[in-house]
Amino acid sequence: MTRLIVAAGGGGDAVAAAMLDGALHGDGDRTVILTYAWDRLLSDAVPGPRGPDHFTGLERLTPAVRTVPGGARPIAPAGSTLPRLAAALPQTFALIDPDHGAEGITRQVEELISHLEPDSIDLLDVGGDILARGDEPTLQSPLADALTLAACSQVNASVRLLVAGPGLDGELPPDELRGLLGPVVHTFTAEDVEAVGTVLDWHPSEAAAMLAATARGVRGVCEAAGGGRAVPLTDEGPTVHEADLDAALARSRLGSAIMETETLREVEASSREICGFSEIDRERESAARRGEEPAEELDARALLGRLDRFEARARDRGVTHATFGRLAEVLGLGGARHDELRRLLAEERPGRYAPPLWPLAS
Q: Quick one: DSSP state of residue 194?
């Protein structure tokens, strides 16, 4: 049995795909996960998704698809967590190349289907923003999901659309999503998380972190990066729902508009028109504002003092947990220093350190 899972937005969706594959089947070496290499400035100084030309060590699977083995490396200044993910997990990770728009990704999926002859094909999104119209004011990252939605809707095969952790990406409210979700396919447990447990100690995805935390029984309110979005951690968090692929495409103004695109520039132009922005533009602006991060050691006392003050204020807002991305944001640390922050907290607050989320002091 061979399976194909398309990680709709890359990043945390790829981690969730591996977690779901392990939970349902347990033999990840028979599964190919097709995903973007797009760390959104968390581990990559270059805006936008990475294509095959940004790596060394990729392996050809089909004419249009390359796999990312654990020994692959991004070419500086680009960065990517995908090789490290591939080294840590049994699934085969294949790279989505968005440079040729939806038509290019459709071709990649079709080639994989022809080559693998998979028994199942799933399109998986964590949070549910793949079900967005495109004009929701809380929407932050519609481009990647809309591209894979448009592509998978055009392949000559049955594709199942899955949404894990409704609302955990903080982009669409759970109340708005409930009417768009179908039956529950699986509810993650703490045992399911163990398959990707070591990955969650370092992977930057906030949605995957909250998905895993809810599977482990964590409940409350988590503050995420991006200005402190408050995300409820509820019993809905660890669920995986099926959704109607055709209905999702019909609802998605962006997905419907980009089905015949042949370049990423065309996709960006449609996103600006329909959503009012391109998230890659936002990354370009953020990258332009960033200077060189200081090389000196972290001032542990000053950082821990600022952390204590943040925790006190956040508790007053009803927050119980924070992502490590939110902590780094509050403490003024860029993505390159996230690992340093984790080590500092593990050393200075060992009784509190509980990745993938940080529990706030009571």
A: G
